[in-house]
Each structure stands twice: as C-alpha cells, then as structure tokens.
Design goal:
With 549 residues, the chain is α+β, with helices and mostly antiparallel strands. The chain contains 12 helices and 17 strands. The radius of gyration is 51 Å and the shape is elongated.
Length: 549
C-alpha cells in the first residue's frame, strides 16, 4: 500500500483547503503522494479546471462513480477515485495495486481529502461564476454608457448625415468590427449612406445586396464562417476582404427602412450577444435617424410655409391696396354725381318735370347706396390692414342712439316700417369712438329696416350694465335667421340664404369695430319671430387705443 505520506491526511486536507484554487489544490494533493509511493499518474477530470500529471496523459477508463471515495483495479494498477459530485468532477490517482490498502480506506483520511477538494472546487466554481457575472455586468455597463453617449451625440446634431456616421462609428467600436456601413432604402434601391473603416480603394455601391437581404428578411443575418463569402454575390464586401459579417435591420414602429452591416476581415463567428448588442444599437440608431429626418422635413416644410406666408402677405397687401385705390377712385366721381343730382333736385337749374324728378330721386337713392357699398369696402380694407384709427373720447349714449335712429327714420317711413325707441335710452357716458359706434348702429338699423316687411316694427334701446358699460339692442319683426346662419352672417361677403342686395360686409365690419372698442356684437333670432342684434361696449376703451385730448 502507499507508504505514510510526509504529512497526515488531516494536514493534507488543511493544505488543500488553503490552496484557494483547483490547480493549487491538485498540486497540494500530488506532491506528498509522489514522495510516499510510486504513483503512475493523477487527473482531475470534469469540473471547470481539468488537470493531468504527467501533463497530457489520459486517465484510465473507469465506470462512473457515485460521490465519495472508491478504489478500482485497472490494467495499469489501482485507481483511487475521489468523486466530488455534480459539476465539480472527480480526482483520480493511479498507483501500484498494493498502494491502496484497507487501512487507508477505513481510517477516513481520504474522505477528509475528498471533502477538502470538494470545498475548494465549489469555491473556485462560485468564484468563476461571480467573475463571469461581474464581467457581464461590467460589459453591460460599458455598453449602456456607450449607448447613452451615442444618444447624447446623436441628439446634439440634427443633420441626418452626421447621425448616420455617428451610428457607424459607435457600432464599429462596440462590436470590435473592422468596418461598418449604414444603408437605407430609397425607393427600389438600397443605398449606403454612411460608412467607417472602409479601405480607400473600395468602391461604395449604390445597391448593397447584403443590406437589401437584411432589409427584406427584417431579421439579423450572418455571413462568412464555414460557408465562406461569395465574391459574385457580395462584390463590395469581398473587395473589403470580409471574412465574417453581421447585418441587422433598422426599423421603427414595425417598418424596416435600412440595415447596419458589420464586417470583420478575420475569421469570426458573431455570438448571440453580438447580435443582441447590434439590435440594441440599431434600435437607438433608428430613433436618432428618424428624428434627424423629421427635423430636416420640418425645416423644409417651415421654409415652404414661410415662403407661402410671404406670398400671402404680398397678395393680401396688393388686395388691400386695390380696395383702397378703387374705393377712392369710385368715391370721388360718385360724390360729384350725387352733388349735381342734389343741385338739380333743389331747382338750381330751373323747374324739373315731375317724371324727370322721379327719375332723379331714384338715381340719387341708388347713388347713395353705391356710396355706402364703397365706404364698406374701404372700411373693410382698412380694418384688414390694421390701419383703422379710433378716437376715444367721452360720448353720451342717448345722443348716439337718437342720432342713428333719426338717420334711418326717412328710410323706414318710406318703406312703411315703424322705427321707435323701445324706451328712453340710458344717460350713460362712456369712453369710446362715437363715430364708430354710430356707424355700427346705422348698419344694424339699416339691415333691420331692409329685412322687415311693410307694417313691421324696428326698435332700438340702450341699457346701462353693472360694470359701467352699455348694451345697445336693435330688434326687428322680420323673417328671423336660422341657427345655421347665425354665425355665417358675420363672415365677410356672406348673407342669409335667400336674400339679395348689399356686399355682406356690414355685419362683419360692425363686429370687428365692436371688438376693437373692447366689446362684441351678437345675434339672437328665431325664424318667423324676428331678430335682435346686441352690441355690448365697456365703460372705457381698451389700453393701447388712441385717446383724443
């Protein structure tokens, strides 16, 4: 049997436990056994750190042993097996047949040694797992930091070409590749938009078959390896001396628009981890590329809108100048016509036959109507151009209402419409533009008389409000206004359906003037019951209005 070692089994077990690693434990076991007897060989089979002595030798073929200590006879001698259990493997010692006798198997010394080896192997395995986990976490942290840096770098620029180059550079660095290309689909072609690491003499094709294959598959694809790379199928990558490659799609919201191609000029098999990292990079890259493209599109659209706005302003200005010019050119001769008609009607040119007088009176009425239309157009042009000047001064509401009613009284009498003050107007005095308020009231009264049939009634009232403002109300017994028309009538050149005459500017101008004075103009109406137009004005004009001194 083996001669007594230079140290006891307990000391040997302690020495093994203090060794720290499987390799050191194997040496601690082997050295005293070699000194004590003729040992033919020793092996640590299985486990994470296999070892052999003599180096390169093979252990004897033995049946699997359960966890524990066992001795087996072989052609070469006796084999002592210290089965550590599970993934830790076994330690096999081969010596002469007489080396392992009953005394050694009965005193428990080898069990202590086995347990010591088991403890060291378990610690070594756990340490290896911890180191592997640490390396994994460290690599993930580095990858996360790199992705964060990529995001920051991509967000600092909104130039699509620069973003594509950043994506290619980061992908090459993180995956340890020799070169990277970024291709996008443009119509029927797949064009390489950015690349890093290419050889200077390698042409960049407008249509990369490998990138097209990745885009159409919408999944990662590997090239090279045992199958090699076909120069005929992929001439561009063959010219780059690619031996292995990985392509991943660029996709956003389920739509694939490009591909990242990662090339290696050495034999390499991309791992699942490489593929996952490449897909993560592609996801970040797709968002960055999409943002850059969207910004470019918005910038282009913004320029188009700015150009369209300039054209619109120019067109609007030309329209306003046309209105102002035509109104002036029409008003001057029209005033002359009305003046000469008034002279004829006053008899300055002699007596006028009754028939001729009737024609002149009708012509004079038509001329005044035309003058009112020209004035409306001119007012509308001034309001749209922002050139209306308001002169604010104290104004007596009663005088404004009575004056406007007196202006329309002859027209109402001629048509057979009764025009009245519903009740005595309030005696309020407000800070406003009296001429513009009178203009609003005349417009409202004129419309009321126009659309009220003979025998009907038009009334006007003025009431004080609690905040110092006033409410002016013009009510008629006309046909009324349908609900769908009650907002349309305040639009330029719009009228109630079925009506004729006028320009459709009176009400829009009146509402705009009311708002400029700090108030508003609204309508209340029921079909068949007439309408009420209500003007509400504040006690004082809003800040920024021209104040008369």
């Amino acid at each position: 049997m083996i001669q007594a070692p230079a140290i006891s089994p307990t000391e040997l077990a302690l020495l093994i436990r203090e060794s720290g690693t499987c390799a050191a434990a194997f040496r601690a076991l082997l050295e005293p056994l070699r000194e004590a007897a003729l040992v033919h060989g020793a092996w640590w089979v299985g486990g994470s750190s296999p070892a052999a002595w003599p180096e390169g030798s093979e252990p004897p073929a033995l049946a699997a042993s359960p966890e524990g200590v066992s001795c087996h006879g072989t052609e070469r001698g006796a084999a002592l097996v210290l089965a550590l259990g599970g993934p830790l493997g076994s330690v096999v010692v081969l010596a002469d047949r007489e080396a392992f006798g009953v005394p050694l198997g009965q005193d428990g010394g080898w069990e202590r040694v086995r347990l010591a080896l088991h403890a060291v192997a378990q610690q070594d395995r756990e340490r290896t797992e911890v180191e592997a986990e640490r390396e994994t976490l460290l690599r993930r942290a580095e990858e996360s930091e790199a992705l964060h840096i990529l995001g920051l770098a991509a967000n600092r620029t909104l130039d699509p070409d620069e973003v594509l180059t950043l994506v290619a550079r980061f992908t090459r660095t993180l995956l340890g590749a020799h070169y990277v290309t970024v291709s996008t689909r443009e119509g029927d072609n797949v064009r390489t938009m950015a690349a890093v690491g290419l050889r200077t003499d390698a042409p960049v094709l407008d249509d990369d078959p490998f990138a097209r294959r990745v885009i159409e598959a919408e999944n990662p694809i590997s090239l090279g390896g045992a199958d090699g790379l076909s120069p005929a199928e992929y001439p561009f990558h063959a010219s780059e001396q690619m031996q292995a490659g990985l392509g991943v799609p660029l996709a956003l919201f389920g739509s694939t628009f490009g591909a990242l191609v990662i090339g290696y000029r050495r034999a390499y098999q991309p791992s699942p981890q490489d593929t996952r990292l490449a897909l993560t990079l592609a996801g970040h890259a797709a968002v960055a590329i999409s943002n850059a493209r969207l910004h470019r599109a918005l910038a282009g659209r913004g320029e188009e809108l700015a150009h369209a706005l300039d054209e619109l302003r120019e067109t609007s200005g030309a329209k306003e100048r046309f209105f102002a010019s035509m109104s002036h050119e029409l008003r001057t001769p029209l005033n002359g016509i009305l003046g000469y008609q008034a002279l004829l009607l006053d008899g300055l040119a002699g007596d006028i036959p009754p028939t001729a007088r009737g024609f002149l009176e009708k012509a004079s009425t038509a001329g005044r109507n035309l003058l009112r239309i020209v004035d409306d157009i001119l007012d509308y042009a001034k309001i749209e151009a922002g050139r209306v000047q308001l002169t604010i001064q104290p104004a007596a509401v009663r005088e404004l209402v009575e004056d406007a009613a007196a202006t329309l009284q002859p027209v109402a009498d001629e048509k057979g419409v009764r025009l009245s003050l519903q009740k005595p107007p309030c005696a309020s005095v407000i800070g406003t533009d009296a001429a513009r308020v009178r203009q609003i009231l005349v417009n409202l009264l004129s419309n009321a008389v126009k659309f009220t049939p003979a025998g009907g009634e038009v009334s006007v009232s003025a009431d004080a409000l609690g905040d110092g403002g006033v409410e002016l109300r013009v009510r008629d017994t006309g046909p009324g206004i349908a609900p769908e028309d009650q907002q349309r009538i305040f639009h330029e050149f719009e009228q109630v359906r079925g009506t004729r005459g006028g320009t459709g500017l009176g009400l829009p101008i009146s509402r705009k003037l009311a708002k400029m004075l700090g108030g508003d103009l609204v309508v209340e109406s029921c079909v068949g019951e007439g309408s009420s137009f209500i003007v509400r004005l504040p006690a004082a004009a809003p800040a920024g209005t021209t104040i008369a001194k």
